[in-house]
Amino acid sequence: MIFQRLYFRLALAMGALFVVSGGVLIWISTQMSEMHSLERTQLLNRDIALHAAEDMPLLNNGAVNKPALKELAHHVMFINPIVEVYLLSTTGEILSHALPYGTVLRERVRMEPLKRFLQGNSKMPIFGDDPRSEDGQKTFSVSPVLNAEGDPAAYLYTVLNGKTFEGVQESLNESYNMRTGVSTIVLALSAAFLAGLVLFFVLTRRLRLLARAVRRYREDSYRGQLVLPLRGKARDEIYELGDAIGDMSARIERQFDAQIEIDRNRRELIANVSHDLRTPVSSMQGFLETVLCKDLKHDEQREYLETAHKHCLRLNQLIGELFELSTLESGTVEPQWERFPVMELVQDIIHDHEISAQERGIALRATTTRKNIEVHADIAMIHRVLENLINNALRFTRENGEITIAVSEERNGVRVDVCDNGEGIATRDIPHIFDRYYQQDSTAAHPSRGLGLAIVKRIVELHRSRIEVESMRDEGTLFRFWLPQPA
Fold it and tell me: pTM of the predicted model, to two decimals?
């Protein structure tokens, strides 16, 4: 719809603004011209009442000299047809005039404007009551008529823009100059309106290009590259909008790619979990069926049941790791921060795994630069990290090997190293060992499958830290991470 277009709305709004502005401008110009004319007339005729009052004896023994007033009025109006002459009492009552009977509608005029006029310090024009109108106001000139003692006995009140002036004013309003002035204003506003339309068209062109590019991007189901002709250094709001839309499209593309990667990882996870769960379940089923179907000796039954029990434990471990990693990656788990000495936790971990290490002929030891090093972390989560790393080291360290946990202070926190001299990791596998269920080089003695290292990485990330790994085949592996110190 054309009415929904931004350009049309801007043009319509500008047109309405120009019509209102033009009307106001014409009205203001007319009023200013009229006020200027009235001010000029009043200034030019400021002393007309004074001179008229001096020329004629308007009072005779305290009474109005009507013949003299009539002669004065005809004399003044002959010279200046727009002037009307009235004789007022000191209280503003109209005593006499020379106008036709029935044309004067007031019996008195207010004295306050007259007094301001006589003071001589008020700004022109000053408006007084129009005797020929019940509520009209006109410019005027006034002068006192003095008695023998020199005191004001009456006032000569001359209206400067009377009925004759109104007729002249109406004819001037329809004159060539007035029509020319109004036409000039209308033409100027029309030209400005057309120029504004062209300017709006140019300014909205970039918005139309943006809308076209985004619409094409939407039609392509938000895939592919969003081509924006306005990308670059932002010079105004439209360029900033173009940059923002470009950044948004790039983020959408990254989110699409991330979603595809998540979906791929989900399928791989399901496949790997299914494989790992199927193995212990199949073994348990086979051994239990053997126990049920065959007449076995007590020792053989115990061996089969122990094997089935071992697979049950492995199955429970896999399910627990899967649940733990899902919880950590859900975004709902936050570390329970507390202050504790990290070496006490390390000693507890070594004590828990000491028997298992001795059975395999592996030495476990801990070193530190200072005994009472404290960290600010979640003690349960860090316990889980060290336990997973120790279990991983025990799994890949040969007999008579050694596993060391070293704690030291650095400028950016407390560094924890878990080092072994076991089989090591192939160089091509190092970037992937923290991936869920990554299948290590099949030639290794113990191909790595599981979620332990993925859990370790996620916990370290929740502590706003990182974990690094260094390894060489047949020489050993070093895992290193940092923990924050108490403030």
Answer: 0.46
